[in-house]
Amino acid sequence: MQKILIVEDDHELNQGISYALKKEGYAVRSAYSMKETQDIFYTINPDLVLLDVNLPDGDGFSLCKWIKHRAAVLFLTARDLEEDVLQGYELGAEDYVTKPFSMKILSKRIAVILQRSEKPNHRIFDDGFLFIDFDQAKASVNGSEQSFTPTEFRLLYELTSHTNQLLTYDILLERLWDSGNQFVDKHALAVNVNRLRKKIEDEAHKYIFNVYGMGYQWLD
After folding, report:
1. Whole-prediction pTM value?
2. Residue 70: what pLDDT?
3. pLDDT digits over 8-67, tens only?
4. Buried residues in 114-149 as b, exposed as e (16+ CB within 10 A)
5. Three-state SS sequence of the chain
6. Tens digits of per-residue pLDDT, 126-167?
7. pLDDT for residue 215
8. Cα Dmax for the chain
9. In terms of C-beta density within 10 A (0-12 exposed, 13-18 middle, 19 or more buried), how is residue 65 classed?
């Protein structure tokens, strides 16, 4: 079942779109702000994000920069100026729909995007000791179920997606937290890495390595 995340702060409109899309067989979740979107993103790993530009804690253009490498984006917004539409496409959105809109046409555009960007298989990490199903937000360590915070899931996703590659502090800070309106320092990153190590590593299984002064690396 394909998953759609609706990021729209108008609760009535958000729920109306959600109801229509659920009737069409999609798995749908709703978010009403940038922060809520980032907090729940890796618990659902959506295939498509319907994204408003005007959000209570920032603008959707900034959020699109964070989402675009992780899911397809369709802007759904009242911002109908030509420069806004062009900016949406330049940021990597698959489509840009202005309000008011036809639900039938929106549904068709969604179907086209999902067909075009359909994932061949979902994302799993499994080495016999550590198992992570990113689509289902489930994980186990040595057969025992383990829970992670949304930030820890994001960190795991970034590291395991770039095995044996150095991810600098700045890259990780941008991908994990930067949404254009907040700043998090290296200390917060180090705290999350250390907490994650305690959950997934033992003497025989070491995954995350610190390249001093530069960043972190996930080694297979």
Report:
1. 0.65
2. 80
3. 999 999 999 999 999 999 999 999 999 999 888 888 889 999 999 999 998 999 999 888
4. beeeeeeeeeebeeeebbbebbebebebeeeeeebe
5. CCEEEEECCCHHHHHHHHHHHHHCCCEEEEECCHHHHHHHHHHHCCCEEEECCEECCEEHHHHHHHHCCCCEEEEEECCCCHHHHHHHHHCCCCEEEECCCCHHHHHHHHHHHHHHCCCCCCCEEECCCEEEECCCCEEEECCEECCCCHHHHHHHHHHHHCCCCEEEHHHHHHHHCCCCCCCCCHHHHHHHHHHHHHHHCECCECCEEEECCCEEEECC
6. 888 999 988 778 899 999 999 988 888 889 999 998 899 999
7. 94
8. 58
9. middle
Pairing of strands 72-77, 95-98: parallel
**Token pair of 175, please?**
């991908």
State yes or no: pLDDT of 86 exceeds 90.
yes
Q: Write the single-letter amino acid at 75.
A: F
pLDDT on residue 150? 84
Q: What is the pLDDT of residue 186?
A: 84
Burial of residue 64 (CB within 10 Å: 0-12, 13-18, 19+) is buried
Q: State the average pLDDT over residues 107-122.
A: 79
Please give the single-letter amino acid code of residue 179. S
* Residue with the two structure tokens 């659902």: 44
One-letter amino acid of 214: M
